[in-house]
Design brief:
The structure is a homodimer.
Chain A lengths: L3 E8 L10 H15 L11 E5 L11 H8 L6 E6 L4 H14 L5 E8 L6 H9 L14 H16 L3 H15 L13 H6 L2 E3 L2 E2 L9 E9 H7 L4 E10 L14 H14 L8 E3 L5 H10 L8 H6 L16 H5 L6 H14 L12 E8 L4 E9 L3
Parallel strand pairs in A: 2-3, 2-4, 9-10
Antiparallel strand pairs in A: 1-7, 4-7, 5-6, 8-11, 10-11
Helix pairs in contact in A: 1-2, 3-13, 6-10
Chain lengths: ~400, ~400
């Protein structure tokens, strides 16, 4: 199989940017990604681009990919928009990986963008709801928080997971995000505040839910030959896994985990020839606190039902055995839907290269990203390792 | 490069089907595609699925891929939705091709679906308009017919193309579509009627414009080993090319051709090791009559500016030197946006296998599909050849 290297990655800040557009945010991310490459890479050397976006707000629903790449100076670059709801750019990353493996590209771009903060109230619920199951969930009034609340409720009932376990995810991710200048909600929160926040969808409260954000992110991949010219500090994408499941939660085989995440992880681990124990750190899809706990289990970081205990003993803290969401995660860094998947890649890139500033953790060699669409209708998992093959 | 074979393809009828949904139409196309495979292929043997759709009507904008594949019994199959406006499923075909070449799939599905006929008036214009350039075309009031009318006007002024040349495209495609039981507008029209129809956007009249349709289509691709089990009559996908350009017509280098089509064709020809002269027949993207004329030139079937003469001398008639749109094309068969690209593949599959009924042409060995997104912001071109490599 042709080797794939991550040679550059960057994001725009995530947050609320009324003065920016979906196109200017993407242009910022691309500029940063090109700057992050060690060698000389110009726009015309990009052979293929994949842009993930849900298209919240309905600005440009057709040619949503080319409409952002052309603005960023890539109008001669073949572009495809991919969409798997919140896993859009994790999916884009997989397509860019396959394009290089297939020999269709020597350098490929995977990125994503979303502008959400100018869409409010009912329209926000509509745009988020369209990623859920339409007929039996959204049109029956179920919100996304409501879907994940059912999962949290079931997890608490089946496994004894507690209110405090959920809040510990939020506290950790906010503490991490406070060191990330690109985070949307870059402030710390106390366990007391996190536990006492206003209910959104019982048992989930405000601190269990990520914000809606504006932002963009770009990752640049290359085959071996191009990577040798472009990077001094190689990072390989050694595993790519993707899986789908029923879009509606009510049609899944379990409420307390995400089967597609397990399957995508199995695929990524098998390709990389590693297991969960080999993963030093991960960026996981914590759209809600319960989602991060389920991710620990789905990715094999701990046994099924043990994620509460796992977070309690600090395993995923920056100084724990396997740091998770050093970037702040969706919870603190923010969740501009299409930008989230390759946003996770940006953190892996920075951590593995020792460029994560005061949130950097030393000694990391193997990273993982876990990007979930909807409540688990599609999941993309990727594994990254430092060094040449 | 790993060989890619087209082992099955089918479409639902294209037309107006108020009793069907986007999901039931896709299920019909999948069922037909599985039935069209010579060997035994079940749903669980499909490794990866790519579904193209614009999502007209806003039914399911997130997880739009998995929401149709799950309904068709593919909920365990990894699915990605791709979108490049009207080139959505041509783009899906390219991704499925790359997935097989990359070794990520032994059997991959490319398909598309759209339901449009329940969206009327202003909403139709909105949903079509979102595939055009938003800020300077759509919001200024330009419709899609208006954009192509500008191209037609320029082509007539620059190259002397006539009203009759445009109408000949419609007459030919309706004559072909009259033999296609799956066509939306499966009736013949006379040159007189085609020339005298009501103006839509001068110089384009009603017969220069394809209809909006409901429909779905599915193509099944396989690597060599799987293909040996699955087909008795092999068809290779020997070339895949895709290119992007500015979304807005006003920002392109020409009004009288589609530069991305030329570039995508160059890519597909180079991979296949063939040139335009080797192409025996083609399905091209005749969303408007002028688009088919420009396609002749962009694909190299005739010299630039010569497409009027080319259609006049009957070169693209079923008994001409290079039949084009034997299916009826978008004009007669219909244009359910997301389903169009792989709908073209269905005709190639049937013609090369001699299964096209009374519209079948004998002696065809090399086919081409040409699928255009928007007015040329993205184009996918594929080349197909009969026989094992």
């Amino acid at each position: 199989m042709r080797e794939v290297y991550l040679v550059g990655a960057a994001q725009s800040p995530f947050g609320a940017f009324p003065e920016e557009s979906y196109r200017s945010l993407f242009a910022t991310a691309l500029e940063g990604a090109l700057d992050s490459v060690d060698g000389e890479l110009d726009r015309t050397s990009i052979d293929e681009a994949y842009v993930g976006t849900l298209g919240v707000g309905g600005r440009q629903l057709g040619l949503a990919g080319p409409s952002v790449t052309e603005y960023a100076g890539l109008d001669g670059v073949s572009c495809t928009r991919v969409e798997n709801a919140c896993a859009a750019s994790g999916t884009a990353l997989r397509q860019a990986t396959l394009a290089i493996r297939a020999g269709a590209a020597d350098v490929a771009l995977a990125g994503g963008v979303e502008v959400m903060t100018d869409t409010s109230g009912d329209r926000t619920r509509y745009w988020l709801g369209v990623s859920g199951e339409t007929e039996w969930e959204r049109m029956a009034g179920t919100t996304f928080a409501g879907v994940y609340a059912q999962m949290a409720d079931a997890h608490m009932a089946e496994h004894g997971t507690t209110r405090e376990d959920l809040s510990r995810v939020a506290v950790k991710n906010h503490a991490n995000g406070a060191h990330n200048p690109d985070a949307h909600l870059g402030f710390e929160c106390s366990l007391e505040d996190a536990m006492a926040a206003t209910t959104v969808a019982d048992p989930l409260n405000l601190y269990d839910c990520c914000p809606t954000s504006d932002g963009a992110s770009v990752a640049l991949l290359a085959g071996r030959e191009a990577a040798e010219r472009l990077t001094d500090d190689p990072i390989r994408v050694t595993g790519s896994g993707q899986a789908s499941d029923r879009v509606g939660l009510f049609q899944r085989s379990t409420l307390t985990g995400i089967p597609a995440a397990r399957e995508a992880a199995e695929g990524a681990y098998a390709e990389a020839g590693v297991g969960p124990d080999d993963v030093d750190f991960a960026e996981v899809h914590d759209c809600f606190s319960i989602a991060e706990l389920m991710a620990y289990e789905d990715l094999g970081f701990c046994e099924r039902g043990e994620s509460g205990a796992y977070v309690r003993r600090g395993a995923t803290e920056p100084d724990g055995e396997r740091p998770v969401n050093l970037s702040g995660g969706l919870k603190s860094k923010g969740h501009p839907i299409g930008a989230t998947g390759t946003g996770q890649v940006v953190e892996v890139f920075k951590q593995l290269r020792g460029e994560a500033g005061d949130r950097g953790v030393t000694g990391l060699e193997c990273g993982l990203t876990h990007n979930v669409g909807g409540s688990g209708g599609a999941v993309a998992v990727h594994v990254y390792e430092g060094g040449w093959a």
